[in-house]
Each structure stands twice: as structure tokens, then as C-alpha cells.
Write a structure and sequence with these properties.
Layout: H1 2-31, E1 45-46, E2 58-59, E3 65-70, E4 77-79, E5 88-89, E6 94-98, E7 105-109, E8 111-113, E9 116-118, E10 125-127, E11 132-138, E12 155-163, E13 168-176, E14 190-194, H2 203-206, H3 210-219, E15 227-230, H4 251-267, E16 277-282, H5 284-295, E17 302-306, H6 326-332, E18 335-341, H7 348-361, E19 366-370, H8 377-387
Parallel strand pairs: 14-15, 14-16, 16-17, 17-18, 18-19
Antiparallel strand pairs: 1-2, 2-3, 3-6, 4-8, 5-6, 7-11, 8-9, 10-11, 12-13, 13-15
């Protein structure tokens, strides 16, 4: 018994020392050499998407990401980014890898540790691949239109409401411009902005930087103050009630027209007419935009499609034949905007074909190509930055 009592503290001491060593390894891997350089002497900087204090992943000026993962008992570790399967472990159990150069903008990723897909504890997590996963932000040299600046900032509010259509409480996010709470006499136009497949109502507010984009445009006098409403388009597993069929996203149209638009007009100081209402969406959210606006053109005068994969209106039959009369169409649709990324965007063919059809038919529209980006957030941030200044250019009542 005496020997057992003497042994137990030693065992606890050994356990405590192992824990301290593990913590030291983690700390050393995350916080040492914040000004480290790569083999070419280029300075490495922690990604802006890291959790506070985490030094890795780091980025070099060419967009390569440098990872250090502490997993001493793991047999295989990889990162789901180009080149991330080359990870090697050192004698201290620290896995390292340098990815291939990543395109500017935001990239989802996960860690694969012995076959288990997990988020990186050193990076923020985002809902955008049908589940919460890590994300890394790669700076775009010379571009800061979506970054926080010393300008007046609006708010992004989580708004809960009961949907009569679904019988459930839903949540949307609403951007209100900087003067919304101080200029109580003002009423505002509304942009309804939809996310893509595998994402939800949070996406534009987090991955999309919608608040900073609008803040900066408004401060520069390039866009007028507006509300931006971001709701769940029902294109994420489990987001809408009922069985998921081949066109499960159609359910959102009824919720949108019957619940969301009336709720926003009742809850916020909007200008509740089609001349002050816009709708746009990215990827499958762009397809939803085409379907909803064609069926309800009496509700919207501004329409935007960012990398819609399909669902483009037929020319000249689209919008109940209105596209057969360019002059009449221009009177109804104040801005028709189509965009995609030039670097392998899966929506490229559809966007280009639709643009060509519009040109041949003489239908006025705005066509934007995001240089060097693909089906990704940098394309859609740039698209919003180009689209928002075109909206509601007649100054709304009360905002003089």
C-alpha cells in the first residue's frame, strides 16, 4: 500500500509533464517566428482568417499557404487545398506542408487526420460546404474594396420571423446602412441577395464581406444607402421541410414571396415597390433569382446573376415573352446584370451564352467578367461590388 501511494503521485507527475510538453509543442508551432521567411527570403504573414493569436497557417506573397499541425500520434495528415497532401511529420510530431499558390480570395478547407475529416483549430470555421469547415483568406494585391476601413459602418442584424408557408421560425440577416438608426425619417430600397449551394443565410455576411463592401461603396458615394436581405434559399440539406426532390430549391420561391418580402416591408423602413427592390444571387442562388424574378417581375426592377450554373431565361421567350421586345424589357428591368469568373468558373458557358444571346437580341444589360477567379467568393464579392452601384440611382424619398 505504501509503495502504491508513492507511485501514484509519480504517475500523475509524468502525466502532467506530458501534457505540458504537448502544450509547449502546440504553442511553439503556432506562435514562434511570427516574422518567419520562406526559402526565397519572402516574409510570411499569418492569414487574416486565423483565430486570434494563431500564427499558422501563414501566407507568402505568391499565395502559398504554410501549415503546421500538431498530431504526434497520427499516421497521415493532409490539407484539402492544392498541394496539401504532401504533409510530412518531424521528430516532434509536427506536420508541415506548403501548398501550391492559391488564387486570391476565400477558400474552404478541412484537415484529414488518419481518415477523419476535421476543421483546423487555428482557423475560423464557416458554413459553406454543407457543413462547418475551415477557411483561409488569401489577399488580393491592390484590392481592398471588401476590407474594413475608417468609414461609417452599417449593421448586420439577425432577424427571426415565423413563416406561415413552412410553419417554422426562420432566420435571415439584414444589412442596414450607417445612417439607418440616426436618420429615422429615411426609407430605403432593398436588395435581396442569395447564397449558393451548400451555404446558408450566413454566407454573404461572413464569407461574402457584404457589410464592408456596402460600407465602402456608400462612403465613396458610389452606391446609395440600401438594405440588403440575406435569407436561407433552401439549397442546403435539411434547410427546408419535406422530401428533397430534383428541384428542391423551388420551395424557396413561395417562402420568399409570401413570407420574406412582406415581413421585411413590415419590419423595416423600406420603399415597398418594385422600383426600389432588387434581387441577385450567386451560383444556385442566381438560378433561384432567375426563376423568382421571371415569375414575379411585378416585384423587382433590378436583377443580378453571379455565376448561375443554369436557369437562364430563354431569349426571346424569357420573362413571359418580354425579352422579345428590348424596348419594353428595358422599361421594366432597370438593370440586368450577369457575371462569372474567367479562371474555370463552372458557370462560364451559361453566362457567356446568355450574354451573347442578349447582345444579339439588342437587350440592354451589364456583363462583368472577374479576372483570374473561378467559382469562388472573390468572383462574387467583385460582382456585388460592380452590381451595387448600379442600383436605385434615383435618390429615394427621405434620403436627401
Amino acid at each position: 500500500m505504501k509503495n502504491d501511494l508513492m507511485f501514484r503521485p509519480q504517475n500523475q507527475w509524468a502525466t502532467m509533464m506530458l501534457r505540458i510538453i504537448a502544450i509547449m509543442l502546440f504553442v511553439s508551432s503556432q506562435f514562434f517566428a511570427s516574422a518567419q521567411t520562406n526559402s526565397s527570403g519572402e516574409r510570411l504573414e499569418p492569414a487574416s482568417s486565423n483565430v486570434p493569436g494563431a500564427q499558422y497557417p501563414k501566407l507568402d506573397p505568391e499565395g502559398r499557404a504554410y501549415f503546421r499541425i500538431v498530431a504526434p500520434e497520427a499516421n497521415k495528415v493532409s490539407v484539402s487545398l492544392p498541394g496539401g497532401n504532401r504533409m510530412a511529420k518531424d521528430d516532434h510530431g509536427i506536420w508541415t506542408v506548403t501548398t501550391d499558390p492559391l488564387a486570391p480570395g476565400f477558400h474552404y478547407y478541412t484537415l484529414m487526420i488518419d481518415g477523419a475529416k476535421v476543421s483546423d483549430p487555428a482557423s475560423d470555421s464557416y458554413f459553406g460546404t454543407g457543413f462547418m469547415s475551415s477557411g483561409i483568406e488569401v489577399p488580393s494585391p491592390g484590392e481592398d474594396f471588401d476590407q474594413p476601413k475608417d468609414v461609417p459602418h452599417g449593421d448586420i442584424r439577425a432577424h427571426y420571423y415565423f413563416s406561415q408557408t413552412t410553419g417554422k421560425t426562420r432566420r435571415c440577416f439584414v444589412y442596414t446602412p450607417p445612417d439607418y438608426d440616426t436618420n429615422s425619417a429615411a426609407r430605403y430600397p432593398v436588395l435581396y441577395l442569395q447564397h449558393g449551394m451548400g451555404e446558408d443565410a450566413r454566407s454573404w455576411a461572413t464569407q461574402g464581406h457584404v457589410g464592408f463592401i456596402l460600407d465602402n461603396l456608400i462612403a465613396e458615394g458610389k452606391a446609395i444607402p440600401m438594405l440588403v436581405v440575406m435569407d436561407d434559399g433552401g439549397i442546403t440539406p435539411g434547410s427546408m421541410s419535406g422530401a428533397r426532390g430534383p428541384r428542391f430549391w423551388d420551395k424557396f420561391g413561395q417562402v420568399f414571396i409570401q413570407d420574406i418580402v412582406p415581413m421585411i416591408d413590415a419590419s423595416y423602413r423600406t420603399i415597398p415597390d418594385r422600383e426600389h427592390r432588387a434581387m441577385a444571387g450567386l451560383s444556385l442562388g442566381g438560378t433561384q433569382t432567375w426563376e423568382i424574378t421571371q415569375a414575379h417581375l411585378d416585384e423587382f426592377a433590378y436583377i443580378g446573376s453571379f455565376s448561375a450554373p443554369f436557369g437562364y431565361p430563354q431569349v426571346p421567350g424569357g420573362f413571359n415573352g418580354l425579352m422579345g421586345d428590348p424596348s419594353a424589357f428595358a422599361k421594366q428591368v432597370k438593370v440586368l446584370f450577369v457575371s462569372y469568373g474567367t479562371a474555370g468558373d463552372l458557370a462560364a458557358r451559361g453566362s457567356q451564352s446568355f450574354h451573347q444571346a442578349l447582345e444579339q437580341a439588342g437587350i440592354k444589360h451589364v456583363y462583368y467578367e472577374s479576372p483570374g477567379t473561378a467559382h469562388e467568393w472573390e468572383t462574387w464579392r467583385r460582382s456585388l461590388h460592380e452590381f451595387a452601384p448600379l442600383l436605385f440611382q434615383t435618390s429615394p424619398a427621405g434620403n436627401q
